[in-house]
Design brief:
The protein is an alpha+beta fold and 172 residues long. 33% of the residues lie in helices and 14% in strands. The protein has six helices and four strands. The protein has a four-stranded antiparallel sheet with strand order 1-2-4-3, with helices on both faces. The longest helix has 18 residues.
Length: 172
């Protein structure tokens, strides 16, 4: 496998086919990839919420009301418990955001491997999301993603604009 080619071809989709549902086998493989994500001190302070019921999908739209978001047949939410995450003793840094970010990245790349599309979303209304998901006081969400098939014509790989290696690497 050419990993650079693989990650270069993955892109965020904002146009999902509402009639094509995600197959359970694919969904389970994607979640398994997330389960394998590393976390600080292997605490695994997370849960994956799989939202598929029409009622709950509609409720989630109140936290992120983009029209295209409403077409996804599945939404994945990675929630975490900061009180279960590793904390650095020297300065109190809590690794929850890092842990959840790594897991979300595993889910998104696994979805791409299954020929499914995603879009990392952090621009949701935090309070509305908390209310919709009925999160406990000790639970946080940093990202959600729709999961599904793009509408026809949305599958072409788009060129990515990235800084050159010289711009992002410092050899010390």
């Amino acid at each position: 496998m050419d990993f650079i080619k693989f990650v270069s071809e993955r892109y965020s989709v904002r146009n999902y086919d509402p009639l094509r549902k995600v197959e359970k086998e694919k969904l389970l493989r994607i979640i398994e990839a997330g389960r394998m994500a590393p976390s600080a001190a292997n605490r695994q302070p997370w849960k994956v919420l799989v939202v598929q019921s029409p009622e709950n999908l509609k409720r989630l739209q109140t936290a992120y009301p983009a029209n295209w978001f409403a077409n996804a047949s599945t939404i994945l939410v990675v929630k975490g418990m900061p009180d279960e995450a590793w904390t650095r003793k020297a300065d109190g840094y809590n690794a929850i955001e890092t842990d959840l970010t790594i897991m979300m990245d595993h889910l998104i790349l696994a979805a791409h491997a299954e020929d499914l599309s995603t879009c990392w979303i952090a621009a949701f209304d935090k309070q509305k999301l908390q209310d919709v998901l009925q999160l406990a006081d000790n639970e946080v969400v940093f990202a959600i993603t729709p999961l599904g098939y793009p509408v026809e014509g949305e599958t072409a790989t788009r060129p990515k604009t990235r800084k050159s290696l010289d711009e992002i690497v410092e050899w010390i």
